[in-house]
Amino acid sequence: MKYTCSIAMGPIDQLIDIAKTAEEVGFDSIALPDSLFFMEQAAADYPYTPDGSRMWNENTPWVDPLIAAAAMGAVTSTLHFYTNVMKLGSRNPLLLARQVGSVANLTNNRFGFGVGIGWAPEEFEWCGVPYQRRGARVDEMIDVIKLVLGGGMVEFHGQFYDFDRLQMSPAPTQPVPFYVGGHTDVALKRAARVGDGWTSAMMTGAQLADTIATLNALRTEYGRAEQPFEFQAVCIDKFGIDGHRELAAIGVTDNIVIPWIFDGLGFDAPLGKKQDSMKRFADTYIHSGWQDT
What we know:
293 residues; alpha/beta; TIM Barrel; two-stranded antiparallel ribbon; 10 helices; 11 strands; globular
């Protein structure tokens, strides 16, 4: 099982040093969250908390995840990065293809594209994109971005996007993996059908076990059971070595964690304390040898 450190809601001026420390102590990846803006009044509930409330406010810091990946990639050499997840619905697929391809090239193929739809109607409407039919539009966006990233002269004539022959150079030298987020039936089907992996929001171990079983059944149904597939999990109730063993046993391949939160610190804790938490976590889990027993 791999370990990914999430940098959600942390001060932007800490990110470069966190990336350096993550690579130094042995994390596999950095997970990069996405949020465009904070709307004072939200038309929809946030889907990943019990009461629908947002876990952040108007002053919570966010950074564009693609820009962050490029910046953090420039000061590391082995650490991977992935968006967790970028909300595609309010964006343009050709612009995203240009950006994703650039990040993949600048990081020497150390970037994975975690994708979702987006939950807030305001993010769509205020960016000039209709909220209606968002799922079908995102499905087509994924097709467009994969096509362009594959390189060469391509064209696309779909229901939502239509363009004649074009090429973006240079294409990434390796395929960019796509990790699909979401807990709904439609999202799980999308992950099984077109994804190189699935990424969770906050879930219990039991919920993760059920979801992974569902995804494996869907992958078999789509004829993709033998293809490599990542299960990236944010688990809220499996801790300690035994808890991590349980996650590995149910099929989690990538455990997304925030070490300083486990140590009782806040998202805005001082950099030095976060680095100490990362080192303790690595000693306890990454380098303890529990996966060899």
